[in-house]
Amino acid sequence: MVAVTPETGPDTALGTDGTDGTGMTATADLGAQLAAAFDAAVAADERVEPRDWMPEQYRATLVRQMAQHAHSEIIGMQPEANWITRAPSLRRKAILMAKVQDEAGHGLYLYSAAETLGTSRDELLDKLHSGKQKYSSIFNYPTLTWADVGAIGWLVDGAAITNQVPICRCSYGPYARAMVRICKEESFHQRQGFELLMALSKGTEEQHAMAQDAVNRWWWPSLMMFGPPDDESAHSAQSMAWRIKRHSNDELRQRFVDIAVPQAESLGLTLPDPDLKWNEERGHHDFGAIDWAEFWDVLKGNGPCNEQRIGQRRRAHEEGAWVRDAAAAYAQKQAAQQAAKHAGANEEARV
Amino acid sequence: MTGTDTGAATVTAAALALGDDALILSHRLGEWAGHAPVLEEEVALANIALDLLGQARILLSMVGDEDELAFLREERSFRNLQLVEQPNGDFAHTIARQLYFSVHQHELYAELARGEGPFAPLAAKAVKETAYHRDHAEQWTLRLGDGTEESRARMQAALQALWKFTGELFQPVEGLGGVDWAALEERWLAALTDVVERAGLTLPEGPRTGAWAAGAGRQGLHTESFGRMLAEMQHLHRSHPGASW
After folding, report:
1. Per-residue pLDDT reduced to its tens digit, A242-298
2. Which positions ≥6 away from A347 have C-beta within 8 Å?
3. 3-state SS assignment for residue B145
4. CB contact under 8 A, B49 and A329
5. Which domains does chain B have, with CATH numbers?
6. How many CA atoms lie within 13 A of A59 on its CB side?
7. SS3 state at A165
8. Cβ pair B37:A323 closer than 8 A
9. Cβ atoms within 10 A of the Cβ of B8, count?
10. ipTM exceeding 0.90?
């Protein structure tokens, strides 16, 4: 995005506070110019790249959102990994392991993308572990049966895709590009979840009941994944203006419901909402009231698995500290040896 | 000629032995998901587990229905090495287990791939995967051995703890009659000695076979933790007889 690069050249180092050392008035003018150019570029759908000037608040919003997204990927490994060792066929086991592995990979891309904004994976992980940054609340629900693996794929990944596809056009380049790849893999996961549920739905009576039970438990939390209603959403308006976000929470939620209803029918499963019906006039499905008290309660830490999820994450991190320390110490020794060798060679060359 | 016992019964015996090794080690590695010390290792350990599971599925399918074999056999019918069923322990134990097994599997598959027996096609593909597994284990052995005091001590302890299970790696497997097991063992020992020395560690001393391993995994004698592992692995499948998934 060239439009917001200061006129003095792309490499001119501007302080993040906009100071350029030329005096207050010039600074204020330049700051205003940069901000105006930034807004215009974003409005014209140009991509913001890591070295471009950007408002501090834009940077902070992106770090918060990308970190939360990355954290959701790695916490999201837990409820599904819970079934790897019990997967009922080798084919399903391979699919599930690959899926959980993909989530670790998504975490890697997203932490890397966030690092382009001047933060680090370690710093972000510390904030996750200390509770300063959040992850998607959906992962605070337990996976009680094998069918939950299917319900997560179909509904949770389905909701995530609905949320994430528009982010492929997010104004921040590295995030948008990471999302393109992530969305491809997520849509694969969603089809796998759907296919898993189909096998159960068409299987024995017990398997069908297992699938229905899982859908009953995951439906409402999946609708909550789109966040609070538009009039209560704290970050929405600014994020929309900055083209970090492209559609409102309620729009996306409606889109998801409209997609899920016919899919449930083809699965031969029902959705647990007596108020769910097609509204000819609106051209959308109406659906029942979401229990927002539950949403806020889980978000505050009172979900069924909040402590368990963050506890396992912290434990893995703490128990792995000696491994990371060893890798760092080894890398340092190798680098020192290389440097010594290099210095020795230079010395010889001089002699 | 390598792997040329083509009688159906001996092919079955060998496919079960190799298939069970891959199946069980894959399962143990799968237990790491969500617990690895660093995100890159979540990806790497899952990758190795997936490679092994892929090998297991091909090998078990040479014998019969892969799911019946994985989920409906009793503990005493499994033919895997005792080494691969050992619990993960700390990361050093997992790496030591990987090192011992991957060097063995890589050397064995390289030999099978050169032959014309029934396992040559699989081995030709798997040898590329096992080369990566071996490299992963060797790199971590170096990092842990030459990292910090703590990592060195842990890695040394892990090598020691699993040492007694390594003799079984070179017990001839029925159906792989063409393999020169003594030469395989020599190559394995040479490779182990090299990496362990480069890591500043010492190769454990002490017996690698003995009364505890009489017959051992290849004859269906396993260690106590294996039964519990199978109970977890087989429970859901066994709870729904005849169901498809």
Report:
1. 988 889 999 999 999 999 999 999 999 999 999 999 999 999 999 999 999 999 999
2. none
3. helix
4. no
5. 8-239 (1.20.1260.10)
6. 15
7. helix
8. yes
9. 10
10. yes
